[in-house]
Amino acid sequence: MFEQYARCDQALVLAMLEMVVNGVSTRKVSKIVEQLCGQKVSKSFVSTITEKLDPVVNKWASRPLNTMYYPYIFADAMYIKVREHNRVVSKAVYIATAVDQNNRREILGLRVDHGESTESWQRFFQYLKSRGLQSPKLVISDAHKGLKSAIGTEFVGSSWQRCTVHFKKNIIMHMPKKGMDEEKMGLKRIFEVATVEEARRYKNEFIEQFGANPKLEKAIEI
Length: 222
Prior knowledge:
This protein has helices at 6-21, 26-37, 43-50, 54-61, 118-130, 145-154, 164-172, 181-191, 196-210, 217-221; strands at 72-84, 87-99, 105-113, 138-141, 159-162. The chain is of the alpha/beta class. It has a five-stranded mixed beta sheet. The chain is globular.
């Protein structure tokens, strides 16, 4: 009987894996399976099933990076909640995304650490270099001091650029939350042009139009 329905059984397992990959918790997966099949599966069973992903993930995480040159690399960190020693804590996930010579984006790697610091960013970049990553032409990131310091140390000869997305957010943080639609559109226009000359012209226009507003003093200074 199991052989007869093995294909269906495998499809269900793959569906469960797909749910986990897309961020569905093991508890929710077990509830979904119960609703679909009329039988309950435990969270531990779902966890056991997801172990099938480990070899695939490990192969991806250790793949060589010296088969292609990556001229542009974006470095950033996101924070997630992780269960550790029977408690939930916040951890930093370091992510490096590159643009290759064919103008395609590729996630080079990621690592989980306790928080952002120069040393932890250095360890992350050293991990990428141990897999064959060469120094890129340009590294793009936010202005975190530890991150900038690690980039300068680990990627000698590479240029650094402040991420415009983070930069815009830093400016908008110092603007009033309400009634700023026109001002925000004017700010975004500065960053969406093709040349430096256009950006400077729009910047000057922005200051001329909104510079008299005392509520924008800090934003304009930035």
